[in-house]
Amino acid sequence: MTLTLDAARARDAADPLRHKRADFLLPAGKIYLDGNSLGALPRSTPARIARLVTQEWGEDLIGSWNTAGWIDAPRTLGARIAPLIGAAADEVLVTDSTSVNLFKLLTAACLARPGRTTILSEPGNFPTDLYIADGVARTLPDRRLRTLPADDIVTAIDDDVAVVLLTHVHYKSGRRLDMAAITAAAHAQGALVLWDLSHSVGAVPVALGACDADLAVGCGYKYLNGGPGAPAFLYVARALQDALRSPLTGWMGHDAPFAFTDDYRPAPGIARFLCGTPPIVAMGALEQGLAQFDGVDFDTLVAKSQALCDLFVALVDTRCAGFDLTLLSPRDAAARGSHLSYAHPDAYALCQALIARGVTGDFRAPDAVRFGFTPLYTSYEDVWRAVDILADLLATRAWDDPAFRRRVAVT
Amino acid sequence: MTLTLDAARARDAADPLRHKRADFLLPAGKIYLDGNSLGALPRSTPARIARLVTQEWGEDLIGSWNTAGWIDAPRTLGARIAPLIGAAADEVLVTDSTSVNLFKLLTAACLARPGRTTILSEPGNFPTDLYIADGVARTLPDRRLRTLPADDIVTAIDDDVAVVLLTHVHYKSGRRLDMAAITAAAHAQGALVLWDLSHSVGAVPVALGACDADLAVGCGYKYLNGGPGAPAFLYVARALQDALRSPLTGWMGHDAPFAFTDDYRPAPGIARFLCGTPPIVAMGALEQGLAQFDGVDFDTLVAKSQALCDLFVALVDTRCAGFDLTLLSPRDAAARGSHLSYAHPDAYALCQALIARGVTGDFRAPDAVRFGFTPLYTSYEDVWRAVDILADLLATRAWDDPAFRRRVAVT
Q: Which CATH superfamily, name and number, covers A5-42+297-407?
């Protein structure tokens, strides 16, 4: 791999996705490596939102629930996410937040495995996953959350495990778990698996159907570019849909929501996992985020994600050696997501110094700097320039300046 | 009361809120009496959304979580709702949907009253309230949902009732319940009360603090004009906040969400009832809906709501007598919300015929036509013209035309 700026530019020139970058409104003069936290704004989104607000809401008002397809938005957007995660169109819904969807599916899974007491997860899983699991365990009788290192999960699954809850790509380390193997091990013991795809969807291959996956949730505002706090999605394998019941039995999950009957009767299929009235303006933003994948070959997207990460690792290896930067993420692209984390003794201050120089990554407590690579809009030149600035900062220790430390509140 | 068009116009001319109508983008040539289902678009909303999307998201990206106050939006918008419902600023949060918030607070209330098995509500309550209660009763051990006519609730509250769940203003009849009396009766038996304010907030006096109310939820897209599927709100009396635990223990309700620790520790105060990442674009729309109340005297607003309803009732009494239209709502303004329902043997077709003539109300199964009056933008002339068209339709039975019935799918 040639590691010059010219080589990076040559790769951009040869990138089959290079035209996609212009479809996003990226901030001038900055290198944005945080699309795994909040995806950038698609150029088409402001106009779509304006039309939705002014025409569909302002002019057509309640009629838009039918004429503009508002009432179907959870299903139509779910169907657009489905091919990104290897699911069928009628297995995915866009609804609520990732946390709320975790609660729905985790509770439904526990209730579908009566007599089994354990929700199994890994320590250091994304906090909301562990917190929601704790909430489920406290709400249902005789359930407990048990955590074990990811490598010990497969052998620990026994007939007391109701559900295994894992994040496919770890939010910090970027490690990608073996969905097929873990799912098979759980099924062999009669347990279900719930996958959090928040750091996978839109940048990493996910094959829920091929892995015989049971349940999944994921985030709309990272690689899907749906905007801050965008609605999340959930997946329930078709074979499980009518056997599971959401605890959050809101009217939109009713078999006949507008019959206004007193008794709850869950809708057949995936619709029973809806709850309240869908957030239409936010749905419009997510719709445009998903539209960015139209016409994009997914293998090409994944290959670029891996190449961007590989280039970053190679550049850091070469230019940042000896500066206490330790790669926390796997070197093997097949075992990794689309972001990289590095431990550093002064990670918070380093992250702030990078931001001050125009490189946006993020800090993750206690000691990690994280860089995300969104193949739709991150360029190879972005990667080169980011490492160039990183190397300069490490060499000069610019963050040691007392005035800088006071300004960014490093103690 | 003089019931001429000129008299209605004179009342508009004298209306201290008449300037507010111009702050909304109302559809030309239509009379919109469905603001109790979906509030109209504030004129300031499109520009606010555009700035939020293009500047805060597009340009400033993740920095906006702090610099644009995104992370505080649930609390800052909650604090703006608080004075509309007689609550303190730190007792209200904007978050999730009404249905999800019902689940949180109903479950928390049940868990705070161990040993009590009953959730008490009324038959014909808004469906999602009953459905969520059913979901809570199925999820927790040994709980049941019991429904009794509203007039029988007070005497039925006993020491087996954990929580009474009632809608303050009934979605169909518009009947307003006596919050103070029911709350006192529940407290006398050690039970909690959860009020659904969806059809009250923004048009009807609500005095949660003065009534010693425990818990409430409400909707952002009706009289608060927050847009289709706007985020909802919840209220927890300050004295209860640290004693209750939400079952939906998402990371935003954690005491230190960005410490990324494995163990859930609920935030002190109202923040523990947050769950996932807040929907920022939708929050921006609700912010503008709430801004419409700035500088509006609430007593004036309530007086206009009552006067609009009273005029509608008087006009229907006078001009629609003998046409099988039966008022389902209380005649006494103090016992009513800001909408009116009428039963009619052919209610669905009548509603469609009204829409075809430019009057938007809505049909509620099985036999009701419902008209909502939003004092911020509904005019007395709107009321007069709506009843004029209603009277004409009833006299001509325009909906009996077979071609019309086929077109609007009346069987």
A: Aspartate Aminotransferase, domain 1 (3.90.1150.10)
